[in-house]
Amino acid sequence: MENFEFNNPTKIIFGHNAEDKTGAETAKYSKKILLHYGGGSAKKSGLLDRVQSSLKKAGVEWIELGGVKPNPRLSLVYEGIELCKKNNLGMILAVGGGSVIDSAKAIAMGAVIEGDVWDFYLGKGEPESALPVGTVLTIPAAGSESSTGTVITKEEGQLKRAVNSDLIYPGFSVLNPELSFTLPAFQVACGATDIMAHLMERYFTNVTHVSFTDRLIEATMKTVITMAPRVLENSTDYDSWSELMWAGTIAHNNLLTTGRIGDWASHDIEHEISGIYDVAHGAGLAVVFPAWMKYTFKHDLNRFVQWAVRVWNVDLDINNPEAVALEGIKRMENFFHSIGLGTKLSDLKITDDRIQEMAEKCTAGDTRTVGNFVKLNRKAVNDILTLTK
Amino acid sequence: MENFEFNNPTKIIFGHNAEDKTGAETAKYSKKILLHYGGGSAKKSGLLDRVQSSLKKAGVEWIELGGVKPNPRLSLVYEGIELCKKNNLGMILAVGGGSVIDSAKAIAMGAVIEGDVWDFYLGKGEPESALPVGTVLTIPAAGSESSTGTVITKEEGQLKRAVNSDLIYPGFSVLNPELSFTLPAFQVACGATDIMAHLMERYFTNVTHVSFTDRLIEATMKTVITMAPRVLENSTDYDSWSELMWAGTIAHNNLLTTGRIGDWASHDIEHEISGIYDVAHGAGLAVVFPAWMKYTFKHDLNRFVQWAVRVWNVDLDINNPEAVALEGIKRMENFFHSIGLGTKLSDLKITDDRIQEMAEKCTAGDTRTVGNFVKLNRKAVNDILTLTK
To answer: Which of B90, B124, B223, B346 has the most CB atoms around it within 10 Å of its CB?
Structure first.
């Protein structure tokens, strides 16, 4: 196990009508905030009204900034920063999914500096402070409601880049599983896949003696595999939504990273796909992960066997460990298919003519590798993307 | 799943030489502190010297208060409170195990009030503030290093009582598994049993649709069952100590309570035993738990079957669920025996002549029940204690 520090300060408020507490929690931080949200669904569903009435009750004023899109854009982040600076706002309240929260975190970092927040995403310097962020989550997926991460896309050059900083753990996050009842099935499937991906990025590590967190990750994977089909079958199944939503937060709140070094190559590769083609992140991950696994599984066959046996209930066969590992990968693919996602590039309606370009961008022209479990250069990323054909 | 709020702010600093960071972390809270510890082991091992040198480097002054005993005493708590008030100390740094940390938490609550801190333990009022507490942990056991709990014994009347408050989550806790290398085997076994008990208290619940946290708890139990024998076999096995120590913290940091209602009857019953006989808490729990289970398992046979199959690898036999549950309980008893603990009152060198008195005190003269899974009155507690003979 690696040495580690762990300190996740996000207060989770979970359950029926949890959003009614938004105002009181917000007021602890600021009485004048940016209310950030996405498309029309938060408005249409009446959620935004309920949040606003809770803010009013707590004496909190707000300025609205809607319009966050999946793969949230830098241009809207700049707008948010301007609003915060001009109006001296003290907190960003994100109502929505991971895209809205990631956008809010970017605004929170940008609102307290003179320079360009995009520099942080390019790795030029690190944030030294940020406005507080609160969230009202509408979809179990990105885990951004209790994470250190934010991913933003710069339209020019189709660059999708991430920042990780302890400063952008949300102060509080409101999780009411009922808010997910109206999600389209495709978004639910993409969310479940994103959660699985967060778990697998952490699971496949070269660090030894991490069997406690191995087991915690396996427990979380099994929960997602069980609950995602249930909520797709019955969209108002509160009990199953609860388990899925809480699993989605735990999958990415850094508890399951403690003592480990995650991989994250698949996320980096997927960011190239969704950066160019604007596909849903989860749908991209369902394509990249099987290919990444087929490329890397011999690197630590035992770990893949453990995963196949414990998570996918493959029969252990000590004479054929490779077959066991491959059966695990096949069952994962079947799981993605069962929730309605494809596992090939063509399933995303993407042709294969820009694979070289994506491998090039992902490795900055072969000047860096991606991933830790296996360090992948340009050729390796190219080979993996070729396996997605 | 129940609605819940979860917000554990304790910063964990984990790994080799982690105690060297104590001074820097302490200085963030106060430059003049109470340094609280137990018997001679922290001194003899050189740990106290290293902690003091780290404090010095960070410009932190301290006043020492050693002498905390297992089942920490109220009288020493009063001494600590006096020292804090007289010298205007701003933090309590606990160096030791759960007893030292629990004592530190009591001092932290008492130092900021005019009245008697024992009132909180009697349920008369709740703390409204507390001095910050930091810890340097020497044994995986009580989980107090990242919990809301403190248990103190009042000598007069041999009363052992608990307080739970979010205000006494430690600000930081230093976890270096090497600090446990020199522990006597009996203490290690008691610690592992305490961890198992924290997990079982949470596991046996009447709340439905908590399968995610079920699985997380099972994962943590399996870790303890695997690692405790290893560190007893080889006391310098850093890797296994790491897994056990981190499992001990997670077992009791309230994550595994989320959405659930725990039982806690076995803890209440054990407190009566160790209150009177001053036995080690873990040793008492190894006696109480099997009896509690034999008394309650038919209340939710399915849950006991799941536990037996998943945690103790008992073969599922749908025709004989009771036998499956009982085999699980038997394997748990065997586990306690394998790490050197007895499971009968006589193993604690206790005769059975004060069982009625303990049942009386535990239920306040049959005016209250203990436990949530099954609510136990005086007769039930008496029956369970009788099963320990």
So the answer is: B223
Q: Dihedrals φ, ψ of A343, to 5°?
A: -125, 15
Asked if B3's CB is within 8 angstroms of A14's CB, the reply is yes
Nearest 5 degrees, angle CA B230-CA B232-CA B233?
A: 65
- Whether the pLDDT of residue B100 is over 90: the answer is yes
B5 belongs to a structural domain: no
- 3 state DSSP class of B375: coil
The whole-number pLDDT of residue B386 equals: 96
Q: Does A211 touch chain B (CB under 8 A)?
A: yes
Alpha-carbon gap: A353 to the closest alpha carbon of chain B (Å): 42
Look at residues B116, B151, B179 and tell me which one is the last residue of a structural domain: B179
Count how many domains chain A has.
Answer: 2
Domain enclosing residue A285, as ranges: 183-387
pLDDT bracket for residue B295 (50, 70, 90) = very high
Could you tell me how many helices (H) and strands (E) chain B has, helices first?
Answer: 15, 9
A174 and A190 both lie in a single domain: no
Query: Does the beta-carbon distance from A6 to B11 stay under 8 Å?
Result: yes
CATH of the domain at B354: 1.20.1090.10
Q: What is the dihedral of CA A304, A306, B13, A7, to 10 degrees?
A: 80
Q: Which two tokens stand for residue B336?
A: 């306690």
Domain annotation covers residue B203: yes
Q: Which of A12, A208, A215 sits opposite B5 (nearest CB)?
A: A12
Per-residue model confidence as pLDDT tens digits over A332-369: 999 999 999 999 999 999 998 999 999 999 999 999 99
Q: Are residues A264 and A293 in the same domain?
A: yes
Tokens of B294: 């034999």
Nearest CA in chain A to B174: A5
Which is nearest to B244 in space by CA: B71, B235, A249?
A: B235
A265 within 8 A of A371, measured Cβ to Cβ = yes
What's the CA gap between B357 and B220, in Å, rounded? 35
Residue B83, both tokens: 């020292």
Is the residue at A3 inside a domain?
Answer: no
- Separation between Cα atoms, residue A243 and residue A335, nearest integer Å: 18
Ranges of chain A whose pLDDT falls below 70: none
Above 90 in pLDDT, residue B46? Answer: yes
Last residue of a domain, one of B179, B209, B243: B179
Considering the domain architecture, whether residues B242 and B154 belong to the same structural domain is answered as no
Residues B166, B235: one domain?
Answer: no
Average pLDDT, chain B: 97
Radius of gyration of chain B from Cα atoms? 20
Is residue A303 included in any domain, yes or no? yes
Confidence at residue A275, expressed as pLDDT on a 0 to 100 scale = 84
